[in-house]
Amino acid sequence: MENKKIMLGNAAIAQSAYEAGVKVSAAYPGTPSTEISEYIAKYPEIYAEWSPNEKVAMEVAIGASIVGVRTMASMKLVGVNVASDPLYSISYAGVNGGLVLVAADDPGIYSSQNEQDTRMVARAAMVSVLEPSDSEEARVYTKLAFEYSEQYDTPVIVRTTTRLSHSQSVVHLEERTEIPNKPYVKNIEKNVLMPANAQKRHIIVEQRLRRMAEDACNFNINRIEYRSKEIDVITSGIPYQYVREALPDASVLKLGLVHPLPKKLIKQFASQVNTLYVVEELEPVIEEQVRA
C-alpha cells in the first residue's frame, strides 16, 4: 500500500531531510520556519540543534558539509541577513557534503520585521534557489536540493513562505537513503578564501550558474502546462496555486528552480503564447529578468 500522509509544509521538509540522508541540522527559531527543526528533532538519525543565532547555524551546517555529510540550516527571512557572511563565502568555496539552507519568507509580514525576498539575497550571493508550491513539492524539492548541491558544488536555498510552511497537503513518504560520508580532502585554494583564491573561485561560480541555467531547461521541476494560449503565465511557488485557481484555462510555465532561471525554456514558452504575465510574490525577480 502506498504510504501517504497529510503534512504541513514544514513537516514535509523535515521528512525530506530524513529521506535524503541528512545527518546534521542546525537552526534558529522564528516563524514561519520554527517547526522544521522541531520536526527534524524527532528523527533519531539526524543530529539537530538550536544554534545561538542564524550565523552560527549556518556555520555549523557549513562545517558538517566540509567534513562530508549532508546537512541543513533552517531560518526565517530576516535570519538570512544574520547568516549572510558565511553564506556568501560558502557560495564561493562550494561544498563537500550536500548543503541546503531553508529560508522561510513572510509575504504579508504576519510575523516579521520586514517583507524581504530571499531570492534577491540568493542572486547577490550567487546561490541557486528552489521554490516548492505545496507540501509534496517541499519534500521532493528539498531532496533534489541536496542532489543539486553535490552535483554543482554549491549550497542550495529552498525558499518557502508562510502559506507553504503552515498549509497542508498529501505527501508521499519514502524510505531514508543512507548517503556515505564524503572524504575530506585538504584543498586550500578551494576552502580558504583569501583574495587570490576568491578571484579564481568567482570565475568557477559564474560558470557553475551558467551550466545550471542551461541544464535547468530539462529539469522536470520546470514544466510547461499548455492550455489556452490567450492568457499565459510564468510563475512559481505558492503563486502557482493562485494562478491555477484564478486562471484555470491559462497556459503556465511553472518554475521550480527560480535562480538561475532556465532562459531558453522561458524563451520557448514566450514564443508560443499571446499575452504573457509573470505572477510572483514580493519583488519582480522573475519579471525583471524575463523583460531583460
Report on this structure.
By secondary structure, the protein is an alpha/beta fold. It has 13 helices and 13 strands. It has a 7-stranded mixed β-sheet with strand order 3-2-4-5-7-6-12, sandwiched between helices. Strands 9-11-10-13 form a 4-stranded mixed β-sheet, sandwiched between helices. Strands 1-8 form a two-stranded antiparallel sheet. Helix 1 crosses helix 2, helix 1 packs across helix 7 and helix 3 packs parallel to helix 5. The longest helix is centred in the last third of the chain and has 21 residues. It is globular. The relative contact order is 0.14.
Q: Topology, pairings included?
A:
Elements: E1 4-8, H1 9-19, E2 24-27, H2 34-40, E3 47-50, H3 54-66, E4 71-76, H4 77-82, H5 84-93, E5 99-105, H6 118-125, E6 128-130, H7 135-152, E7 156-161, H8 162-165, E8 168-172, H9 188-191, H10 195-215, E9 223-225, E10 228-236, H11 237-246, E11 250-255, E12 257-259, H12 263-270, E13 275-279, H13 285-291
Parallel strand pairs: 2-3, 2-4, 4-5, 5-7, 6-7, 10-11, 10-13
Antiparallel strand pairs: 1-8, 6-12, 9-11
